[in-house]
Design a protein that fits this description.
This protein has 237 residues and is α+β, with helices and mostly antiparallel strands. The protein has one domain: Aminopeptidase (3-Layer(aba) Sandwich), CATH 3.40.630.30. 24% of the residues lie in helices and 21% in strands. It has 6 helices and 10 strands. The longest helix is centred in the middle third of the chain and has 15 residues. The radius of gyration is 17 Å and the shape is globular.
Length: 237
């Protein structure tokens, strides 16, 4: 009970961007999927292993909150530890550079001390010239020593739930199908789409939050998010 009280206070101080949802977890606990459509909830429960949740250490209790302005330094340091310096050379970076994450769709996981131990963001994109709007997810990262405690899975489920709640139609990402397939992502609907730089086509995955959202999607994925002035370190990844 003491932890819940402290976490509730923490949630009010950080001004979460995630709307009304603030989720609390014990070690290894899965995020609820009640806000998802039934088909998405079922797919989100399907199990498989993947890099963001692999490892030997047991994760501590944690809370998922909307990312705050004070999280910039901690988040960048976490991404460097988890993904290395080459992370900024990925094709996905071309769609994120100089942009802000989609409104209300940037999240961090904190342990009981308040330290940032996980992060995920979603970005506004457009599918082809004048095509439909969608979201691009990434990067998803967890503190390297805590990859076995379900933090990455909880962040993914929370992000998907919030994107659906906010009315978005589809989410795309570049990642490993064996891991992201557990959340319903596949390459089934991305064959007519392309990233704006080098990438492995079979790793371009998508999840429809609304049936048919990707039915006519074709062409190169383009950035459509809110622009920022200059190049702030907090929006590099």
């Amino acid at each position: 009970m003491e932890y819940l009280t402290k976490s509730a206070i923490l949630a009010t101080e950080i001004a979460p961007s995630s709307g009304p949802l603030v989720e609390l977890f014990s070690a290894g606990e899965k995020s609820p999927t009640a806000a998802l459509a039934p088909s998405l909830a079922l797919r989100a429960q399907a199990g498989s292993r993947g890099a963001p949740d692999e490892g030997a250490a047991q994760a501590p209790a944690f809370v998922i909150l909307g990312e705050g302005g004070g999280d910039v330094v901690a988040r960048e340091a976490l991404l460097d530890r988890a993904m290395g310096p080459k992370r900024r050379k990925k094709s996905s970076e071309k769609l994120r550079r100089g942009r802000r994450p989609s409104e209300g769709l940037a999240f961090v996981a904190r342990d009981t001390s308040g330290a940032v131990i996980g992060t995920v963001r979603l970005w506004d994109v457009r599918l082809g010239e004048g095509g439909p709007a969608a979201l691009l997810l990434g990067p998803l990262a967890v503190e390297p020593g805590l990859k076995s405690g379900g933090i990455g899975s909880a962040l993914m489920r929370h992000a998907i739930t919030e994107a659906a709640r906010l009315g978005h139609g589809a989410i795309l990402l570049v990642g490993d199908a064996p891991y992201y397939g557990r959340f319903g992502f596949s390459a089934d609907r991305t064959g007519a789409l392309a990233m704006p730089g080098p990438y492995e086509r079979h790793r371009l995955l998508a999840l429809e939050l609304k049936d048919g959202a990707l039915g006519d999607a074709t062409g190169t994925i383009k950035a459509a998010g809110r622009k920022i002035k200059g190049q702030a370190p907090g929006f590099l990844a």
